[in-house]
Amino acid sequence: MIWLTWRQFRTQAVVAFVALAALAIYLVILGYQMRHAYSTDIVGCRPADCTGARRAFEEAYGAQVASVGALLLGMPALIGVFWGAPLVTRELEEKTDRMVWNQSITRTRWLAVKLTLLTLVSMAVTGLHSLLLTWSASRYDQLIGDRFGALTFASRNIAPIGYAAFAFLLGTVIGLLVRRTLPAMALTLALFAVIQVLMPAALRQHLMTPVTSTVTLDVEAMSRADLMGMDESGARIDGYTMPGAWSLTSSSKVFNADGTPYTAKQAELCRQSDPLAAMQCTARQKLHFSYTYQPADRYWPFQWIELSAFLGLTLLLTGFAFWRIRTCSN
Predict the structure, then answer these.
(1) Residues 25-51: tens digit of each pLDDT
(2) Looking at residues 242-247, what average pLDDT do you find?
(3) Which of 167, 172, 169 lies closest to 190, judged by CA?
(4) What Cα–Cα distance (Å) separates residue 164 from each residue in 72, 78, 201, 207, 303?
(5) H-state helical runs in the chain
(6) Would residue 145 be called left, alpha or beta, if left means φ above 0 and alpha means ψ between -120 and 50 degrees?
(7) Dihedral of the CA atoms 42, 240, 221, 228 (nearest 10)?
(8) pTM greater than 0.90
(9) Which residues of 305-325 are buried (b: 16+ CB within 10 A; e: fewer)?
(10) DSSP 35
C-alpha cells in the first residue's frame, strides 16, 4: 500500500522537491547577499548614516523577502487544493474506489496510509521552505524587527508546518463531502484563504492576554511615534511601538500627570521651531498614555500555540475523515 501510494504521488513529490531545490538555491544566494550588505553597510555605521543605510537595505531586499514569504504563505493552500482535495474525489470520479475499497485493503487502511504519508510530506516540504526563508531573511528580520507582522509570522519558523497539515486534511475532508474534484478544490482554497485572513486579523492577538502599560511620554517615546495629533477630546499619540513588540494600540489619548486630558492649549506652550527642543519641553510636562501590546518575548509561545492549534484541528479533521469514509457509499 505504501508503494502504491508513492507511485501515485511520485509526480507531485518530484515537482515539489525540484521547486524546493530551486528555491533553496535562490534563498541561499539571497541570504549571503543580505549578510554581506548587513556587515558592510549596517554594522558599525555612524549614527548620521544609519537611517539612510537601513532605508537602502530595506528597499534593496524588502520586496524579495516579501515575495518569498507570500509564496510560503500560499504553499499550504496549494497543498490543500492539489494534494488534499483530489485524494478521495479522484478515486470516486474515476470509479476506482469500487476496486480499491473492495479488495483485501480496507478503506480505513487505505486512507490511513494515504493520510500518514502525504501529511508528513506536506509538513516536510513546508517546514524546509520555512527553515530556508527564516535563515535567509534573518538579517532583514533583525533589522526591520516586524516578527509579529501577518506575513512575517506566518512564513517563518514552525507555524507554517501546522498550516500545511491542516490545509491538506481540510482539502481531503471537503473532497469526501463534496465528492467532486473541482468544487472541492475551489471550496478548499476559499475556506483556507478565509482562515488565513481571520487568524492574524481577529484571532491571533487573543491567543494570550495582551499587556496594557502606562508609558511616560518622554523624548524616547516621542521619537518612536509617527506624530502627536490633536482632536476634539485632546492630544493623541499615534504609531508608538516598543522594540520587537506587537502593538495593538495604534492611537492613544495623552493625559497629564493628574489624569486630565492634555489639551491643545497646553501643547501650544511647547510649540517651537526646533523639534528636539519641542520634544524636551513636552517631556517636562510629565505626560503619559496607555499602550496595549503583546511583548516581544511572546513570539515563540505564539508560534507554539498556533502550531499546536492547527495540529489539533488536523487531528479532528482526521477523525472525521475516518468516520466519513466508513459511511461513504461507493
Answers:
(1) 999 999 999 998 888 888 877 666 677
(2) 86
(3) 167
(4) 10, 9, 20, 20, 14
(5) 2-37, 47-79, 86-93, 97-100, 107-136, 138-144, 150-154, 159-178, 181-198, 219-223, 264-268, 275-283, 299-327
(6) left
(7) 120
(8) no
(9) bbbebbeebbeebbeebeebb
(10) H
